[in-house]
Write a structure and sequence with these properties.
Length: 513
């Protein structure tokens, strides 16, 4: 009888395990994440930001806590993937760079801490690094587990990111640094030849990737236009180091997306467009895009992965001296968007096969403030473009807010989490995890998963998934997990439904050494 009940219990729950090591380094395929964080740091003065962003890593939705949101620095921390990103603000244009940055070179500050000579570096880049050094140091020093640390930025922000990478790759007294990574976009050169030699010697300690937008691919063309800001420091004889490496990555403009002037190649939006990867993008929950002072020649695109019902809202407010004539288009598939071609004279222009539907024109070439709200059903990926239809100049100043809101209610976290060791065999632990479900909507929803995260101190988190069928209306779950090595563990549980995660439960602890 006992065995029969035992079999029925597990048949009803249909428990399935997926041991997924989440803690891993973000490789080149995920560099859209850094392009995205390098872009939103320009909006740090905007109070609309919540306390977190949800970005996927290899298709797995991850919550990124916004640890710092300062004028020229944002810091993002993903506790359950052990990734920490520092994003530095750069400059938007050649004019900004020329007026805001002092080109004078000063003695490299690394020589004081490392005892090594490192030449002369750009004063403005060093000054911005120094301004945030104590803050960065306190965040890294406070880490409770080994983290992969990334420094990123666009334009001058990329130069500051490289200085930070060099500094922390030469620090020997800090614990919990698993790796140092630097990913930059349109980064100018930093220092003289002596500094470049110091950088090349340190490169083996850093995973470094520097992206450059080009009009034509230099692999196949002898002459090509490239982002002009990367060589702006040549006016004071400062150049990028010469080395044979995959660290320098050229991004060829996609069809119809290249700007009219080479300076447009420096746009952070173009880096975003060239690197987009849906497996490393915003999750299918609440995507929000806020522009306070947008300036662009053709269009900007915004993507959101969605499930079931969502509501798209937009508030547009042209502010410039000249009227900003604009259109807004909604694409409901990647195939449809593939045939999009910007036209100054036609909104949402698509050269498509006869089987494709036209994109929906949400706003059609207007110059005044406008708002809209639209319910959307059963789409997986939505793409919105905001088009500039000024015939002479680009948008002079444009503010707008786009939001994809999932109307599903916020999930409540599991409660009363506890864990205990039920047996030990061959130095492996068999543990039992117990928690309550207090939200009736969670119990009755057949799409609800309960994700258990377990972390051994000093190691990565491991995720276990368990699906509860709706007709098993239990508010108490007990889960047995086998073959856990001896150690000290922290355990936390999330509810997840339709790609939306609940806040975490309380944390349970286990110790067996």
């Amino acid at each position: 009888m006992y065995k029969l009940k035992y079999i029925i219990f597990f048949f009803i729950l249909e428990i399935s395990f997926l041991n997924l090591i989440l803690g891993s380094k973000i490789g080149k395929e995920g560099d859209y994440i850094f392009a995205y964080f390098s872009d939103i740091v320009y909006k740090t003065n905007n109070k609309e930001f919540s306390k977190s962003e949800f970005i996927k890593i290899n298709g797995e939705c991850v919550e990124w806590e916004i640890v710092v949101n300062e004028k020229k620095l944002m810091v993002f921390k993903s506790k359950y993937t052990n990734n920490l990103i520092f994003s530095f603000q750069g400059t938007h244009s050649f004019g900004d760079m020329a007026s805001a940055v002092d080109f004078e070179l000063f003695s490299c500050f690394f020589s004081q801490s490392s005892g090594k000579g490192c030449g002369n570096i750009h004063f403005g880049f060093q000054d911005q690094f120094n301004f945030y050094q104590n803050l960065m140091l306190s965040i890294i020093d406070y880490l409770d587990q080994p983290y992969d640390i990334y420094f990123t930025g666009h334009s001058a922000g990329g130069a500051v990111a490289l200085l930070a990478s060099l500094f922390y790759s030469n620090e020997k007294n800090l614990k919990n640094i698993e790796s140092i990574n630097c990913i930059t976009f349109g980064q100018p050169a930093i220092g003289d030849d002596e500094f470049n030699n110091f950088f090349l010697k340190s490169l083996k300690k850093i995973n470094y990737r520097r992206y450059i937008n080009v009009e034509n691919n230099p692999t196949f063309h002898k002459s090509y236009s490239q982002d002009p800001i990367i060589n702006i420091m040549s006016t004071v004889n400062v150049y990028h180091p010469k080395f044979s490496s995959d660290s320098t990555i050229f991004l060829k403009c996609k069809r119809h997306f290249c700007p009219k002037f080479s300076l447009g190649l420096h746009s952070s939006d173009l880096y975003l467009l060239n690197l987009y990867n849906h497996n490393y993008s915003q999750c299918n929950i609440n995507c929000r895009f806020v522009e306070q002072n947008a300036k662009f020649l053709k269009f900007r695109e915004y993507r959101c992965m969605v499930k079931n019902e969502s509501v798209l809202t937009g508030i547009f407010n042209p502010k410039g001296i000249l009227p900003d004539k604009y259109s807004v288009c909604l694409f409901t598939s990647k195939k449809q968007y593939k045939h999009y071609e910007f036209s100054l004279f036609k909104s949402c222009n698509v050269n498509y096969y006869k089987d494709y539907e036209d994109p929906e024109i949400l706003i059609d070439k207007v110059e005044h403030k406008k708002e809209f709200s639209k319910k959307l059903f059963n789409y997986k990926e939505l793409i919105v473009t905001v088009e500039n239809h000024n015939s002479i100049l680009g948008t002079s100043s444009f503010a707008y807010n786009l939001s994809f809101i999932n109307p599903l209610p916020t999930l409540k976290p599991p409660t009363n989490l506890s864990a205990s060791i039920i047996s030990v065999k061959n130095d492996l632990l068999y543990i039992q995890v117990n928690f309550n479900i207090e939200d009736e909507k969670n119990i009755n929803n057949n799409n609800t998963n309960y994700n258990i995260f377990i972390s051994n101190v000093g190691q990565n988190w491991i995720k276990y998934k368990q699906t509860i069928e709706p007709w098993d209306k239990k508010n108490y779950i007990s889960k047995i997990i086998n073959d856990i090595p001896k150690g000290m563990y922290s355990i936390v549980v999330f509810s997840e439904c339709n790609g939306i995660q609940s806040p975490p439960s309380n944390i349970a602890f286990l110790k067996y050494i």
